[in-house]
Write a structure and sequence with these properties.
The protein is an all-beta fold. It contains 1 helix and 20 strands. It folds into 3 domains: 112 residues, no CATH class; 31 residues, no CATH class; 162 residues, Jelly Rolls. It is elongated. The N and C termini lie far apart (82 Å). The N terminus is likely disordered.
Length: 367
């Protein structure tokens, strides 16, 4: 049987699979014998190695070389080197243009897929038992499209332009970006969860400083300075607000650093300094002020004079009918609860406020 016209014109147009299930005795001693198509199968047995048109003897299971010569098979050079797969089981759904190779198939360079035709996205398909995968060359778009996940082994890198710019995982659990000049983004970078904090230092002031209120202590060899509290009526006031970068579902925190201003080494191990915060807050359009009161006892024990401590106060964002909202302005009043505190002479050295956010920095609209 002669070579069909579709095969003679273009070997790449083979629509069947290279399988031999029947024995033939043809030899390739001219361009119309040795290969035949029967019931959609290309059958190859062997050919005379002295023939003009093909080289090497074809035997089932051996490597096959096709080298184009002036035999009328087509104008383009055809080179293939592969092992013939012999299997009586037909593929369930042969694909146009598909050739079958075993794991020993080897190709020279360059290995060209396609023939410069327009509007064809070429696919390199991997047909596995459990999962399949494909890589497409998107002809019009001018890029590759990988249809499945990629796994970069261990700390191997992906390079861009040169080896100074890369992405890799230098240690398990970490992703590393490296560049010899800098890393630039066109959009803001955010966490998928609230990994970051918006942080404020609160400036505190006293409405009635002096004999009837808090007194200012200047920095010295013993203190960083701050407001001295010795009475429950000594009030300090600060202010902050809630910006739109707050995640809208997490509590806020005030922290207060203070210094014991007396020698309490003769006190008890359980002695405390009790501080109270009263927070008042409201947003645009609100007529009523919302509020929360939080009191924290900090154990100072047998503290020496000038020893510093820190107290932390949690503001419950969804507290009863006093829910904190984006845009709220919050004023806070701080005082020492002398009725429960064993140490009644302290200096407030600083106050901070923070809330969780997904934003890595202040973005447009956050303020």
């Amino acid at each position: 049987m002669g070579i069909p016209s579709w095969m003679a014109d273009n070997w790449r147009a083979v629509t069947a699979w290279m399988r031999e299930t029947e024995v033939t005795t043809n030899k390739v001693n001219n361009k119309t014998s040795g290969l035949s198509a029967v019931n959609g199968k290309v059958k190859v047995d062997e050919y005379d190695s002295t023939a003009e048109y093909l080289e090497d003897k074809i035997v089932e299971g051996n490597d096959i070389d096709f080298v184009q010569s002036n035999d009328g098979l087509g104008a383009k050079e055809i080179k293939a080197h592969f092992k013939l797969v012999v299997d009586a089981t037909e593929p369930s759904s042969p694909t146009t243009g598909m050739l079958w190779f075993d794991t020993d198939a080897r190709f020279g360079t360059p290995f060209t897929i396609g023939d410069g035709e327009a509007d064809i996205d070429y696919e390199l398909k991997f047909d596995g038992e459990t999962n399949d995968g494909s890589i497409y060359w998107m002809e019009d778009e001018d890029y590759f499209k990988v249809m499945d996940d990629l796994l970069v082994n261990a700390d191997e890198k992906l390079y861009f332009r040169d080896t100074a710019i890369s992405i890799n995982s230098g240690a398990d659990g970490y992703l590393d970006l490296a560049a010899d000049t800098g890393i630039r983004t066109t959009k803001a970078i955010r966490g998928t969860t609230s990994l970051f904090r918006r942080y404020y230092h609160i400036v505190l002031g006293a409405a009635n400083p002096g004999a009837s209120g808090a007194t200012w202590v200047v920095a010295s060899a013993n203190t960083t300075g701050g407001w001295r509290l010795t009475n429950a009526a000594h009030l300090l006031r600060g202010q902050t607000d809630i910006h739109s970068d707050w995640d809208g579902a997490s509590d806020m925190t005030f922290t207060v650093s203070f210094m014991v201003n007396v020698d309490n080494t003769g006190g008890a191990d359980a002695d405390t300094v009790d501080l109270k915060i009263t927070a008042y807050y409201k947003g645009v359009g609100d007529t009523a002020t919302k509020s929360q009161v939080v009191e924290v006892a900090t154990v100072v024990g047998k503290s020496a004079q000038y020893k510093q401590f820190k107290a932390s106060f949690t503001i419950d964002w969804d507290y009863a009918a006093n829910v904190v909202e984006v845009g709220d302005v919050m004023s806070v009043i701080l005082n020492l609860e002398t009725d429960t505190s064993e140490v009644d002479d302290i200096v407030i050295t600083s106050m901070e406020f923070y809330y969780p956010t997904t934003h890595t920095s202040i973005e447009s609209g956050d303020v």
